[in-house]
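Recall the central idea of this unit: under ordinary conditions, the amino acid sequence of a chain determines the structure it adopts. In this exercise we apply that idea directly, starting from the sequence alone.
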Amino acid sequence: MNKILVIDDEEHMCWALERGLRQEGYQVFTAIRGSQGLDIIRKETPSLVILDLKMPEMNGLEVLIKAKDILPKLPIIMITAHGTIDTAIEAMKLGATDYITKPFDLDELKLVVKQALMVNHLQEEVTFYRSELNKKYGQIVGNSQGIQDVCMLIEKVADSNATVLVTGESGTGKEITALSIHQLSSRREKPFVPINCAALPESLLESELFGHEKGAFTGAVARKLGRFELANEGTLFLDEITEMPLSMQVKLLRVLQEKVFERVGGTDSIKINVRVIAATNRDPLECIKNGTFREDLYYRLNVLPIHLPPLRDRKEDIPLLVMHFIKKFNPSQEQRMSPEAMGLLISYEWPGNIRELQNVIERSIILSQGNEIKPHHLPKEIQKVDNTKIEANPRLIINFPEGGISFDEVEKELILLALEKSQGNQTKAAQLLGITRSALLYRAQKYQIKF
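Accordingly, the structure predicted from this sequence is:
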């Protein structure tokens, strides 16, 4: 039940408002002094306050400021006379939700109260769902060069309205990347609407994206808004875009170019303002070559490309990610990963990337009884990691000549040897050297090594 507090120095006004609002099902408190009203706010945490502007001892503006200090999001409706409308506007600048002038109709006040409560409820819902969204998707974690490059790109593209194409293997964090772009953009207060293009058959996908009119097909008993309409003014995330049927790709291309579409079974053109972010775990150019993805759609989506490196290419981030997931799944108590277990995690290849790591940490927390996660708490496939990968490396023997040695020449020679041993595979060469692929590419460029 919503609690309403009426603060007015006229007792008959308090009585009339209390009676009228109780009839609407509200729990009502009254106060004839500002200080008394502030005490009730502290004790009862009302859902809304109706506050008279002109009162003795402490006027309405003073009460408003102090009330907002106690409950910053508290909706406050000011009651004012015609001669003090300028002051009421000043109150709005200080955080009042609305104002109503005397004399007023009780039904009018009831409507203003109902609307203010509804708006406040919607704002609370938005805050809640945004919090849940962050809990669900988490955040980008890592200090590796590869992931720092991604974070820099996200910041650069966030405020653009251009489409973004995020590529990377399954589980690398494409949806988190899309959400991060949305949250850093000017659209952050508007909806972030995801849809998996591979999860729905063509007939349902069209309805999901563009909505449908009542009677458009069997079972369409009412009009339904599509994801484009739901995401209006916000961001639409099209996951697994290369799995979209070719006929739907044509329709999507038209919407991206013209910002207009029709609901299924409808004829009205609907204009939208939506920022589109698409993602795929496939190579789009390979899909174009195979005839499963339109080249014109690719270039329309690939305005701002972002590629996410696989976890095996950013192994230095694994300890950070492990700590992040331990805190996420077990925030109430201290828990750590044993050095042996951490060594296994770092040496594992992670075909499922960050998603797989997250699942492993959640499982290990449940299985471990103490404060330390040990190797036997990890899945069998991780326990079976080749031990030679995590044992101390044999000491490298170098015969120093009397005149010394060039460190750059040694580093360049090691890179060339690693590339030769890996037959030119950059990822494998980086693993042999114990560095990331990004670090290998940087050093290769430094020494003008061509692949």
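The first strand starts at residue 3 and ends at 7.
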